[in-house]
Amino acid sequence: MNTLISLDELSQDSVSVSTRKYIEEDGIRYFVGDIHRRAYVNSEEGRQEINQELQEPYLSAIMAVWGNIPTVEIKSEMG
User: Fold this and answer.
1) What is the spatial distance between Cα 54 and Cα 57, in angstroms, rounded to a whole number?
2) Of 17, 10, 65, 14, the residue nearest 43 (C-alpha)
């Protein structure tokens, strides 16, 4: 079984990654199951998550757009 990965809505601040499983027979792709989507933001935490969860060449493509510095700051609410 193969996996098709797509980078949707890639911007400087975020990306949506969709994955689909498929089998290929006689040059035709047959998709299996549902599309899985995962969004990442260009924050310190988002960069850590995407580094752990996504492989090359997709990771390098995202980092080429995101650059070296996070653009989103996630503030935690502490009461």
Assistant:
1) 9
2) 14
Strand partners, 7: 17
The helix-helix angle for 58-66 and 44-53 (nearest 10°) equals 160
Q: How far apart are CA 57 and CA 35, in angstroms?
A: 20
- How many residues does the structure list for the chain? 79
SS3 of 44, please?
helix
Residues 6 and 31 sit within 8 Å (Cβ to Cβ): no
Stated pTM of the model: 0.83
Q: Tell me how far CA of residue 52 lies from CA of 3, 12, 23, in angstroms.
A: 17, 20, 26
The bridge status of strand 2-8 relative to strand 28-41 is unpaired
Residue 8 near residue 29 (C-beta atoms within 8 A) = no
pLDDT value at 34 more than 90: yes
